[in-house]
Amino acid sequence: MDFNLTEEHRLIRAGVREFCEKYVDPIAEMTDDEAKFPADNIRKLAEQDWLGIPYPQQYGGAGSDYLSYAIVVEELSRACAATGFTLEVHTSLACFPLFRFGTEEQKQKYLLPLCKGEMLGAFALTEPGAGTDAAAATTTAVKDGDGYVLNGSKIFISNAPVAGVIVVFAMTDRSKGTKGISAFIVPAGTPGLIIGKHLNKMGIRGALTAEVLFKDCRIPQENLLGGEGQGFKIAMMTLDGGRIGIAAQALGIAQAALDESVRYSKERVQFGKPIGTFQAIQWMIANMATDIEASRLLTYHAAWCYDQGLPYSKEAAMAKLFASETASRQTDRAIQLHGGIGYIKGTKVERLYRDAKITEIYEGTSEVMRMVISGNLLR
To answer: In a 10 Å sphere around its CB, with 0-12 CB exposed, 13-18 middle and 19+ buried, how is residue 205 labelled?
Structure first.
C-alpha cells in the first residue's frame, strides 16, 4: 500500500495553498464578518479550472480525479470554509447529477458552463418539513403538455442566490413515496422560480444560503433529469459523493485549528515559558493531530474508492462522520488552548469554531451517517 500523494496531487495542494495565501486568507475574516459572498475569488477559482476539477475536459472540467478535488476543498476550507463549501456544493451537488444522469444535450447545455465556471450550480432537495425524510416532500411537478409545472418550496439551498442553474427534486407521483420523486434542471430566471433572501447563519457566513420558491414554474420536458421516478436515486448517489467533499471541508477546518494552536503554543508565554512546553498543552496538541490525521486517511480513502470505481457510500459516510465530529472537537480544543483571546470575534479559531458545527449537519447529519454505515454492515 502506497500512502504517498502523486506529484500531481502535491502540485495541486501547493497551488491551492499559494492561491489561498494570496487571495483567500486576506479577506476571510471580512467574508465572515460581513457575510459577503467572495465573488472575485470564485471567479479566480474558475480561471484555475478548479470548479470542475474531477470532470472530463470534454465537459469543461480539468480531467483530474476525486482525490484532487478533495485536496482543493480541504485547502480552501483551511483558509475560508465558506469558499470551500461554495465550491463543494457547485462541484459535488450540482455538477455530479448532470454528469452521471444527464443526456448529452443536457451536459453540453448545463454541465459544460458549470465546469468552466461560467455559472454556479445549486441543489434543492431539503424542504421545511422534509429534511432526512425525503418522502415527506411537498414540492410537486405536475405533467402539463410538453413539460412540468413546479409548485412548492425548498429551504437551506446553498448557492441559490448566485446559481445559474438549480437541480430540483419534486414529487411527480406522491403515491409511490421516494419512488415518486423526480429531478429537474431549473435555470435561473425561469418564470415562477423565486429566490428568497440570504439566510443569516452562525458559520460559513460568506456562503450564500436561501429559501427557493416555485409558483407555477414551468419546466420543459427536456429538463427532466434521469427519467421520472429517478429523483431519489439521483439525490442519494449525489449525496454519497458530496459527503467526501464535506469530509474534506471539515478536515481543512480542523487542520486550520491545529495550525493556529501550534503557532499560539509557541508564542504565548506563561510562568516564563511558552505554553507549548507544558505537558497539558502537548497532549492536547498530540490528540488534535492524531484525530486530524485519521480524518485525512478516511477522507482520502473514500476519494480513492470513488476514483477506483469501488463502492464508496459507507466509506464516504465514515469519512464525513469522523471528520466533521473531529472538526467540532478540535475547534473546541483550539478555543480552550487560546483561552480568553480565542473567544473574541476576529480571531481565526473563533471563526473556525462556528464554521465546524454545520459539517455535522448538512448533506446528512452525524445520525444519518451512522444509519448509512450500519445499514451497509447489517444488510
So the answer is: buried
| CATH code where residue 191 lies | 2.40.110.10
CATH of the domain at 14: 1.10.540.10
Within the chain, strands assigned E span: 120-124, 140-144, 147-158, 163-171, 181-187, 193-198, 209-220, 224-225, 269-270, 273-274
- 367 by Cβ neighbours in 10 Å (0-12 / 13-18 / 19+) ranks as exposed
Q: Within this chain, do residues 287 and 351 fall inside the same structural domain, yes or no?
A: yes
**Which pLDDT tens digits describe the chain residue by residue (379 residues)?**
788 999 999 999 999 999 999 999 999 999 999 999 999 999 999 999 999 999 999 999 999 999 999 999 999 999 999 999 999 999 999 999 999 999 999 999 999 999 999 999 999 999 999 988 888 999 999 999 999 999 999 999 999 999 999 999 999 999 999 999 999 999 999 999 999 988 999 999 999 999 999 999 999 999 999 999 999 999 999 999 999 999 999 999 999 999 999 999 999 999 999 999 999 999 999 999 999 999 999 999 999 999 999 999 999 999 999 999 999 999 999 999 999 999 999 999 999 999 999 999 999 999 999 999 999 999 8
Domain region containing 186: 121-232
Q: Which three cell numbers stand for residue 299?
A: 477522507
Active-site hit among 75, 127, 260, 363: 363
Of 215, 232, 249, at which residue does a domain stop? 232
Q: Verify whether residue 293 is a known catalytic residue.
A: no
Report which of 213, 219, 94 is spatially closest to residue 154, judged by C-alpha positions.
Answer: 213
Which of residues 173, 199, 232 is at a domain's end?
232
Q: How far apart are CA 155 and CA 157, in angstroms?
A: 6
